[in-house]
Design brief:
Elements (H helix, E strand, L loop, with lengths): L4 H12 L6 E2 L4 E2 L2 E2 L5 E3 L3 E2 L12 H22 L7 H14 L6 H9 L4 H5 L11 H16 L7
Antiparallel strand pairs: 1-2, 3-4, 4-5
Helix pairs in contact: 1-3, 2-3, 3-6
Length: 160
């Protein structure tokens, strides 16, 4: 399966950079910013890697292209870890959002439950909202609840 446009907008514009951090409207370019956890980021959640230089900024088209490449890893991970058929587009998008946020190698509770039972529970999503340091995060709790809504109802609502 592939990430839908609604799923991509939910992740990229809704959660990875809803405030358009680093965007200079006058220049119509994106610049690096700190993601709030000490990671230099650009565009829609792209963690800047050693050797990447974005000092001159990147265009909105480049941001979308970079996000497509970055999210492809999460799409591949969900496709590779899913052993059941019959997943709906909204279920897939919700799992990709969580995978994109948790990392490509994370075997998250919703994915584990989906593989075991063909579904997932609300608590699988809403119980998974700590930072990499194990600290509860209000922002992640809100995101997990929104991912649950996508998974369970097909409602893509990134307001927070």
């Amino acid at each position: 399966m592939q990430l839908s446009d609604a799923g991509a907008d939910f992740i990229g514009k809704g959660y990875e950079n809803p405030a358009e951090k680093g965007f200079n409207a006058k220049l119509n370019l994106y610049f690096q910013y700190d993601d709030g956890y000490g990671t230099q980021t650009i565009g829609y959640g792209h963690a800047v890697k050693d050797g990447e230089d974005f000092s001159k900024g990147i265009s909105p088209d480049q941001v979308r292209s970079m996000f497509k490449a970055d999210s492809a890893e999460a799409v591949g991970a969900v496709n590779g870890m899913t052993c059941r058929t019959g997943m709906t587009q909204n279920q897939f998008d919700a799992l990709v959002s969580l995978q994109f946020n948790a990392g490509p190698h994370a075997y998250t509770p919703p994915l584990r439950d989906f593989n075991a039972t063909g579904s997932a529970k609300k608590s699988d999503f809403t119980g998974h909202y700590t930072t990499s340091g194990g600290v509860p995060s209000r922002g992640l709790a809100i995101r997990r609840a929104a991912e649950w809504r996508i998974f369970s109802t097909g409602v893509y609502d990134a307001s927070h």
